[in-house]
Design a protein that fits this description.
Length: 177
């Protein structure tokens, strides 16, 4: 990557393998009417930056490292299923607010550096599981999922393709330092 190349970047929490396997099995059994998010793309977004110059990647990674240091003990408990106009998601309760603290610290730092603009709505811990053009209005039973302890956080490059985006983790960091 060259400094003036533009990359579609976001930061997210990665899920442990057992949670990914359970969600993927649930998706295959319960979700219809759109394009399933593949197991390798399942994550909880902390901040979506959009297209940014490749030269900014080290600053984004540094901001994530600093924010992730606050992430010791992140636990997310599954709350429900929800559809918006273009995606279906699983929503989570952030036990103790630790994931929100990571997201808030990351977003503040990126915003202070001019790399990001925070959304007006509060951060919502969610896992996008289905994308669609017409809302399927599903009411699936929830997957069997123990409280999720994210494995780590990562800076991802999102590469858009005709069959859906592919995410590549280019920097991963442990939660809690």
């Amino acid at each position: 990557m060259v400094g003036d190349d533009r990359l579609r970047l976001f930061c997210g929490l990665r899920l442990p393998a057992d949670a990914v396997e359970r969600v993927a099995a649930w998706q295959a059994a319960e979700l219809r009417g759109g394009r399933l998010v593949p197991p390798e793309n399942l994550h909880l977004t902390l901040a979506f930056l959009g297209h940014r110059p490749a030269a900014e990647l080290p600053r984004v990674a540094a901001a994530l490292r600093a924010a992730a240091a606050r992430g010791a003990g992140v636990r997310l408990r599954l709350l429900g299923y929800r559809e918006t106009r273009s995606v279906a998601m699983l929503t989570f309760e952030d036990e103790g607010g630790r994931a929100a603290a990571v997201a808030g610290a990351l977003q503040r730092t990126l915003e202070q550096q001019g790399l990001y603009r925070r959304e007006r709505r509060p951060w919502l811990p969610h896992l996008t599981v289905l994308r669609f053009s017409e809302r399927p209005r599903l009411r699936p039973p929830l997957p069997e999922l123990e409280p999720v302890v994210p494995s780590d956080a990562a800076v991802f490059i999102s590469r858009l393709r005709p069959d859906g985006a592919r995410y590549e983790a280019v920097e991963t960091v442990a939660l809690g330092g």
